[in-house]
């Protein structure tokens, strides 16, 4: 059949590509809800460096998507079944290496077409079924799975003193990391440090919240999550190094466009572990879905989800990206093209 | 119930390169008709999709459906009539013979040679037909429309912002369509160029659904070349 793919050809310019999909071994999914990620916004606005843009475009954006199965010849999924899609394409299988870091792995919406398509033909191991979750919430499963991945890695690698965690950042990523931490370590104290008092107000379920310049000098944590990225990375990492106890683990999750100086003298002196954590794999998606079936977690997530009007045309895609710029958290929209 | 009706009754080809009606020409690896049918079958709201085909081509149509379509239980092929609207009525009759008459039945009629129809357009047709009883898929006219009654001099240049170009699908409450068609005189029937006009000449309101320039009708060799170029996108996943 002929599929329509909505590709970004240059910043702010979309073009529809038509492509035949005739693979009987793949699951055919109709995207239903999508969420915009900062990475999509950076492509859309042309904020990536020109070399990357030239290499990666034209390309369909969006890697956060919930859909409905239309057809699956393998019989694993039935027509009408609700699913979320995994944008990570596993590379070489190596023991001890996660699928999202494996050599030759790829990512849909970073060099390969993302989910802005009329239909998605995808391998069945890249599909995870869900039920009892609103599709508009299920749309951000990938985002939640990234937090799940990071917390899982910390569980596997850090020392076992896990009484105090700090999350730096007051955006959507910090929000879901805090939710996942609360769920995995229910007895630990979680502190969130941010820059914007209004955004910090939403973290009512964290044990403590502080503005970065008001964090008490004597504050100490066992482990930390850096969820700032960009220009905020340096001060966040610096503050974390100052407040973390010896041999703590710092999960780096914020994306920086430029190199960030790190005070390695203190990293050495405290014997710290810095772990880069990005993206996620199937196991993380399954755990994210399992967490998200909890109604309380759904309710919390709903406070960072802003649903825009449905997208029926290229004009609507522009509108959704513009809306996203005006909202502090996650923009989701129904995909009706 | 909701039914698709793909109109593939034509026998001629204006393409000169073809030995068969254009809906059977290949586009990529499959006939145009199959691409169109596949898009309809993806819409789970259709209980059945009917194809109206000229009697000479019914067997061929059955063969290619069997070859390319796995869930062919949802497909029925019926003989077309002498023109577009009689083909639609043949399909309506076949549906009512199989399932009986129901005042809520919806029929979504579509040209076989518009394989770039989108799921969005099909879904919006079904919704509009349920809500309004009849709908037409259109795109805003980009060229100025010039009317000439004698083919020699301009009679009128209508205001372009009020002009649309008709595409398909055209969708209807089936009972409404049948009753309106049967109320037409033979003369009225003879001037019909499409199904929506059945309603328009009888003052039955027809709502508009936004079409898409890409939902082109493959009629000429130039269209066919464009369609081939459009469908030949490189794979990137």
Largest sheet of chain A: 7 strands, mixed
CATH class categorisation of chain B: Alpha Beta
Provide the gyration radius of chain A in Å.
20 Å
Note the overall shape of chain B.
globular
Helix residue percentage of chain A: 25-40%
Integer-rounded radius of gyration of chain B: 18 Å
Please identify, by name, the CATH architecture of the largest domain in chain A: Alpha-Beta Complex
How many H/I helices of chain A? 11
What is the element string of chain B, with H for helices and E for strands? EEEHEHEHEHEEHHHEH
CATH domain topology of the largest domain in chain A = Quinone Oxidoreductase, Chain A, domain 1
Distance between the termini of chain B: 37 Å
Mean pLDDT of chain B: 92
Specify the overall morphology of chain A: globular
CATH fold group of chain B? Spore Coat Polysaccharide Biosynthesis Protein SpsA, Chain A
Kindly state the percentage of residues in helix of chain B: 25-40%
How would you describe this protein?
- The complex is a heterodimer of chains A (337) and B (237).
- Chain A contains eleven helices and 19 strands.
- Chain A has 337 residues and is an alpha/beta fold.
- Chain A folds into two domains: 169 residues, Quinone Oxidoreductase, Chain A, domain 1; 132 residues, NAD(P)-binding Rossmann-like Domain (Rossmann fold, 3-Layer(aba) Sandwich).
- The model of chain A has no long low-confidence stretch (mean pLDDT 95).
- The longest helix of chain B is centred in the middle third of the chain and has 16 residues.
- Chain B is globular.
- In chain B, strand 2 and strand 3 form a beta hairpin.
- In chain B, the strands form two sheets. In chain B, strands 5-4-1-6-8-7-9 form a seven-stranded mixed sheet, with helices on both faces. In chain B, strands 2-3 form a two-stranded antiparallel sheet.
- The interface between A and B is medium-sized, with 29 and 25 residues.
